[in-house]
Design goal:
By secondary structure, this protein is an alpha+beta fold. The chain is 47% helix and 17% strand. The strands form 6 sheets. Strands 7, 8, 9, 10, 11, 12 and 13 form a 7-stranded mixed sheet that branches. It is globular and about 95 Å long. The structure holds adenosine-5'-diphosphate (ADP) and magnesium ion. Magnesium ion is lined by residues 96-97, 162, 390.
C-alpha cells in the first residue's frame, strides 16, 4: 500500500459537477428566488405595469399575469424554478393571485435571510414560519365573510376585481356579468367543474362584443357548402376516427394493367366510403363532429343526406361536446349504436369576425357553456382571455368555499397585525421568525402603493393605524393614495387566493431555507452555470 499524498485532491464527483455548500448555497438560492419575485412585482395590482415577452420564434405576448410571465421566461436556476412552481400551484388551485404568491415567497425569504445574518439557524426560522403559516390560515378564515351563488352582486364585484387593471379593463362590467352568469349556470350544489366553462377567443370587433353562449362553440365550419347551415333537434355523433379509406401502414403497391382494373379499384374505395356514410346515416345522426379528417367524397355523401359535419375538431372540444350532448366518442364507424348518439336543440354555423364557427346550443345538459372573447388584435384577445380565466377561477373559489375577503392590501395588513399579536405569545427566537413572517406580508400593500406611484411608507402607516382601530378591511385606494374601506369600494377577492398564496409561499420558503448543499451535475451541452448565477438575468 502506498501512502496517500495529502496534497492530492480527492474527487468524489465527476468532472463538471459543481457544488455549493453552507451559507453560500443559502445565499444563492435566496438571491435567485428574490430576483424572480422582483421580476413580477411591478405587475401587481390595478396600477401594475405589463410585460412584453418575446419567445425564440419572435412571437410576442403582452401580459400582466404573473404565472404567464414566469412560464414564458424559461427560468433555469433550481431555486428560482421552485418559485415558479408556487405560481403554477396558485394557478391550478385558484386561477388568480399568482403574482401575490410569488412576491410573498420572495419577501419571506428576504426576511429569513436577515435572521440568518443574525445567526439564527434556518431550522429555527423554518419552525417559526410554519407556526406563522398555520396561524395565518385561522386568522384569514376568521376574517372572511360568507358568500353564496345567490349573491350575484358580490360575485360580480369579485370578477371585477380580478380584471381591474388588466387588458379586460375597458369592458370589465360586461365581462364580469358574463363570468358570473357562466359560473352560476354550471354550478351544481356548490360544485363547479371549470372545464364546463370553455373560453373561446376570436380576433375581430371589440372586447365589448364578447358574449356568453349557453352551449358549446367550436372554431370549425361545416365541411361542405351544401350541408345545412342550421339544424334543430339534432342527433349528434362524435367520431374519433377518420371518415376516409385508411392508407396502409406499410408501403403497398398494386399493379394495374388495364383501365378496367383502375376503375374497379376506385369503385372499391368509393363503395367503402359510401358504406361508412350509410352507417352514419343509419345511426340517425344529423350532425357529425369528427376529430380526424373527412374524405371529399364522404363530405359529398353526407351533404346529400342533409347531415352537418365538421372535421379536425380539437380533442378538448370533443370532450366538452360529449359532456354537453350526452354523446359518447366512437372510434369505429362499424360499431355505432343508438346509445352513443347525443342531443342538442340547435346546431348552426355562424359568422364571427370573418370566420365561420359552429354553435351547438340548447344541449341536453346545459351545464356546459362557452364564453366567446372578442378583441381587436391577437394580443388583446389573449390578454383578455387570461383576465377572464382569472375571474372565473375567483368566482368558482368564492362559491365553493363560500368565503370572501376585501382586498387592496387589507387582508395582508390585518393578518400581519394579528400575527404580531400572536408572536408576542411566543418565546425568543420563534417570536423573531413569526414577526419576520408578519412583516413580510406588508410587501403586498407596499407594492400596491409603489406601483401606483404613491409613497409606500405613508400608505403603510395610515393603513396600520386604521387596522389598529379595528377596521379589518381598510385598504389602499390606489387612485387617491387614501385609506378606503375595501369592502365598500367593492374590491372583493375569494378567501382562497389569500390562504393558498400564504400556504404555498411559506412552504417553498421552508423548503429553500433547509437547503445547505447544492450539487449540480454539469451538462456538457450547456455552458455550466456559475453557482447561483442565472444566465440571462443580468447577474
Ligand atoms: P395577482 O396575480 O396576485 O392576482 P394582480 O395584478 O391581479 O396580481 O393584483 C392583485 C392585487 O391587486 C390584490 O392584492 C388586490 O387586492 C389588488 N387590487 C385589485 N383591485 C384593486 C383596486 N381597485 N384597488 C386597490 N387594490 C386592488
Ligand atoms: Mg389577479
Amino acid at each position: 500500500m502506498t501512502q496517500n499524498n495529502p496534497n492530492q485532491p480527492i474527487y468524489i464527483l465527476p468532472e463538471g459537477h459543481s457544488r455549493t455548500v453552507g451559507r453560500d448555497a443559502q445565499r444563492n438560492n435566496i438571491l435567485a428566488a428574490k430576483i424572480v419575485a422582483e421580476t413580477v412585482r411591478t405587475t401587481l395590482g390595478p396600477k401594475g405595469m405589463d410585460k412584453m415577452l418575446v419567445d425564440s420564434m419572435g412571437d410576442v405576448i403582452v401580459t400582466n399575469d404573473g404565472v404567464t410571465i414566469l412560464k414564458e421566461m424559461q427560468i433555469e436556476h433550481p431555486a428560482a424554478k421552485m418559485i415558479v412552481e408556487v405560481a403554477k400551484t396558485q394557478e391550478e388551485e385558484v386561477g388568480d393571485g399568482t403574482t401575490t404568491a410569488v412576491v410573498l415567497a420572495g419577501e419571506f425569504l428576504k426576511n429569513a435571510e436577515a435572521l440568518i445574518d443574525k445567526n439564527i439557524h434556518p431550522t429555527v426560522i423554518s419552525k417559526g414560519y410554519r407556526l406563522a403559516a398555520e396561524k395565518s390560515q385561522k386568522i384569514l378564515n376568521a376574517m372572511a365573510e360568507p358568500i353564496t351563488s345567490q349573491d350575484k352582486e358580490l360575485l360580480i364585484k369579485i370578477a371585477n376585481t380580478a380584471m381591474t387593471g388588466k387588458g379586460a379593463e375597458s369592458s370589465k362590467e360586461l365581462l364580469s356579468k358574463i363570468v358570473v352568469d357562466a359560473v352560476t349556470q354550471v354550478e351544481e350544489n356548490k360544485k363547479i367543474n371549470s372545464k364546463d366553462i370553455k373560453v373561446e377567443k376570436k380576433v375581430g370587433s371589440g372586447i365589448e362584443d364578447s358574449e356568453l353562449i349557453k352551449g358549446i362553440v367550436i372554431d370549425k365550419e361545416r365541411v361542405h357548402s351544401s350541408m345545412p347551415k342550421s339544424l334543430e333537434k339534432v342527433n349528434i355523433l362524435l367520431l374519433d376516427t377518420a371518415i376516409e379509406v385508411k392508407s396502409t401502414e406499410t408501403d403497398a403497391k398494386i399493379q394495374i394493367t388495364s383501365p378496367d382494373q383502375m376503375d374497379a379499384f376506385l369503385k372499391q374505395e368509393e363503395t367503402m366510403i359510401k358504406k361508412m356514410t350509410e352507417k352514419i346515416k343509419e345511426s340517425g345522426a344529423n350532425a357529425v363532429f369528427c376529430q380526424k379528417g373527412i374524405d371529399d367524397l364522404a363530405q359529398y355523401y353526407l351533404a346529400k343526406e342533409g347531415i352537418y359535419a365538421a372535421r379536425r375538431v380539437k380533442k378538448s372540444d370533443m370532450e366538452n361536446l360529449a359532456r354537453a350532448t350526452g354523446a359518447s366518442i366512437v372510434n369505429n364507424i362499424e360499431t355505432i349504436t343508438p346509445e352513443v348518439i347525443g342531443y342538442s336543440g340547435i346546431v348552426e354555423e355562424l359568422k364571427v369576425g370573418d370566420e365561420q364557427m359552429t354553435y351547438i346550443k340548447e344541449c341536453k345538459n346545459p351545464k356546459a357553456v362557452t364564453i366567446l372573447v372578442r378583441g381587436g388584435t391577437e394580443h388583446v384577445v389573449a390578454e383578455v382571455e387570461r383576465a377572464v380565466v382569472d375571474a372565473i377561477g375567483d368566482v368558482i373559489s368564492a362559491i365553493e368555499d363560500g368565503k370572501v375577503v376585501a382586498g387592496a392590501g387589507a387582508p395582508e395588513v390585518e393578518l400581519s397585525k394579528q400575527l404580531k399579536d400572536y408572536a408576542n405569545t411566543l418565546s425568543g427566537r420563534e417570536q423573531l421568525a413569526v414577526n419576520a413572517f408578519a412583516e413580510a406580508l406588508e410587501v403586498i400593500p407596499r407594492t400596491l402603493a409603489e406601483n401606483a406611484g404613491l409613497d409606500p411608507i405613508d400608505v403603510l402607516t395610515s393603513l396600520k393605524s386604521s387596522h389598529d382601530k379595528n377596521e379589518k378591511f381598510a385598504g389602499i385606494n390606489v387612485f387617491t393614495g387614501k385609506v378606503m374601506d375595501s369592502w365598500e369600494a367593492g374590491v372583493l377577492e375569494p378567501l382562497r387566493i389569500k390562504t393558498q398564496a400564504v400556504k404555498s409561499a411559506s412552504e417553498v420558503t421552508e423548503l429553500i431555507l433547509r437547503i445547505d448543499d447544492v450539487i449540480a451535475s454539469g451538462e456538457s451541452s450547456r455552458p455550466s452555470m456559475p453557482p447561483g448565477g442565472m444566465p440571462g438575468m443580468g447577474m
